[in-house]
Target: Kynurenine 3-monooxygenase
Amino acid sequence: MNTKDNILVIGAGLCGSLLSLRLAQRGYQVTLVEKRPDLRKTTQDAGRSINLALSDRGLKGLRLAGVEEDAKKLCIPMNGRMIHDRQSNTFLSKYSGRKNEYINSVSRPGLNKLLLDAAEAMPNVKIIFNHGCKTVDLPNASATFKNYETNEEVTLSGDILLGTDGAGSAVRKNMFLHKKFLFSFSQDWLTHGYKELEIPAKKDGGYRTYTNALHIWPRGEDMLIALPNLDGSFTVTLFLPYKNSDYCFENLNTPERVTEYFEKEFPDALELMPNLAEEFFNNPTGPLGTIKCSPWSTYGKTLLLGDAAHAIVPFYGQGMNASFEDVVVFDEILEKYESNLTDGTLHWETIFQEYEVNRKKDTDAIADLAVDNFHEMKEHTASPLFQRKRKLETAFEAEFPQEYYSKYSLVTFNEHITYDEALRKGRAQDKAILNLLDDGKLPDSLSLQEKLKLVKRETKEIMHDDAVVKNLK
Amino acid sequence: MNTKDNILVIGAGLCGSLLSLRLAQRGYQVTLVEKRPDLRKTTQDAGRSINLALSDRGLKGLRLAGVEEDAKKLCIPMNGRMIHDRQSNTFLSKYSGRKNEYINSVSRPGLNKLLLDAAEAMPNVKIIFNHGCKTVDLPNASATFKNYETNEEVTLSGDILLGTDGAGSAVRKNMFLHKKFLFSFSQDWLTHGYKELEIPAKKDGGYRTYTNALHIWPRGEDMLIALPNLDGSFTVTLFLPYKNSDYCFENLNTPERVTEYFEKEFPDALELMPNLAEEFFNNPTGPLGTIKCSPWSTYGKTLLLGDAAHAIVPFYGQGMNASFEDVVVFDEILEKYESNLTDGTLHWETIFQEYEVNRKKDTDAIADLAVDNFHEMKEHTASPLFQRKRKLETAFEAEFPQEYYSKYSLVTFNEHITYDEALRKGRAQDKAILNLLDDGKLPDSLSLQEKLKLVKRETKEIMHDDAVVKNLK
Model:
């Protein structure tokens, strides 16, 4: 154990904490550096994604590090989307026709604390807070930090440096500006921003609306969602265009306008939100962006993981899950090379490159799926054709649980297949069902089994036709 | 005329020169600033895209400014791709089954000089060379330049500022760094770089190989191409991986290795290139990248056009053509607003935004088509299924010239439809033919007319099926 490399991990958020814990379990000496104060000692970041959706891919990562059971104590199961229409009618659209397939609402700081505690309990992990990364010496796995308590500069280095410093990654920015290699990079912003609000708990600590669902108020261009917290409250997020719309962040500029907007679009939510106007103007408006880049590693010395490598929009509830799955994939490759060691030295460059070749197509896929779901959640859930598709899929999943998995199920509950496979199969299935329905080829006269057979055949044909074009390349 | 706005144009390459000429013809006061020396007085940039493909969309832009006929004098028609195999066999794959559909090889500096001369002949155009743009004051349509002759700083401003300063645009970089709005941006690099080489003219000034074709030596991962020049020479471009290949820029590091590589892969080209090794090591290796961004305009004061807004890889021969088409589209919108003037003032912000809404989907489309064609040129041209497709398409175009246009023809010779339409229809046609061929549904027993009917029906179905999925959004 003593001869294992020193690893410098920058960023002690969800990904960096889990990664550090796992690397320490493998016997590495880990130094984990975080720019923010220790969140176990302060409260911070009000109004920024207080709770998140944790599902099977994320749980697999937590399981790998032995913290799944502890994490589950922080979870509230959500069995489906509770759709709220303008007339305050609700109906539950289940995530799956199978009973054991649900997602969980979990507190971001709660889960982060759990992971920091577990990492800190390892003798070979050192965590340093309040140190902001200023520059990275990429070829030497070394970085200079500003100590925000003393304003001093500190330089730290490792045998390798792992950047898990999130969507605004300082490590990635250093790669972008490095200029000695070609760095592909994209940042794509949606026309919408988000703002976090709250449905507080009842005075007795109970929930003001149905607990075990992800609540959605889809309104075409706008959307409101709410996820439950353990303390009886819901964290509510409003997704709204920045401008060029009857109601948008640019023109919702008085408490009266905000209330008018909620009265018109989300009357049943408004009833549950006594502090709406105050929160609306106190909480920041956040942008919604997708970040992709390549290469993730440089000089066989530095590697990006998690949001630093692939920030995605939140509409599939997969951001944290993708980051935890990064740790699983990286760990598998590390395991392979560790068990085949000949001269006692790991060739990190090979490991980093194999990790990217393995993983990038999948994080690209979940990024694209998350943008698709942005449109699905705010618009499609109100389309009759889409609703017929969802109804049919739920019936397939209930009646033939081993034979049919919707795109959502493939992404969310089938962690044994990759995001890329889930995207290809899921999109082909959607296309097959929508076109069969639109062409009147799934009449009521057919049995559910006959319908499933047609859908499967059409899906197979679509995937075959796509492959003929693609395999030429 | 005297009351028209002052326009500051940054970048006097192909796009900036044509745009300035056209705006001057409309009566605007134009100041055109270029960082390089006047190319009419110096020779420069050896080894960087000396000739380009000019086709219908580009010619339309030149026609708009009244310089098409002069430009045609610089053109050498190319009727198809002359494919060279490893055994030095050649065959001509025509660009179209229609006789009047061909592309042209044109000298970049030659065409640029022509446009600068035409712009400079206008009394309301002032051209300033040797001034590099350092910073842009986006809200005030003002920019600071370094005069490379005196090292002094100069600030210039206009009522509006147009950035036509190419793929490395300083104006765009200022937008990226501005931080007061969300700027979507991507730079995507291919794994390949390029290097320009030469087949010199014969001693008598004649051509050493067939003149009226774009010569291609497709070799899977690598590719060599050659375009004719008026002086009897050909400009040759080698596209090759940077690394991780038997032959790549990283390991072609001695004259012997370079010659060995050409002997093995391009023996007939090598015979025509007496100065190969010298040129290989003297000329730079250039990267191949796609750049997309949005918004193209800020504050109703600045707008990006040409490569500054949308740099693409060269594999469709559409880079210059897309930039000239930008001028056509911008001019059409300007015409509409000028002829509907009520209070005498143009609202540039509206014009800029309408231009982007109109144009961006098309420049995104040609960017994607150009990457597709990278794979088509280096790999597919050698695939039997692809060759059967091309043969069938050429027959369709020859026999039914008004009824069938291949993707290449739609993009290159059908300037009345947009790149986006060309992409959607062209990809659907390709998918239809490849799958019909692959499934054995176009047997020789069918007449050409029957085959065309099947292809058209299948294409229509593919486009319909795609639309059902898309229109949900």
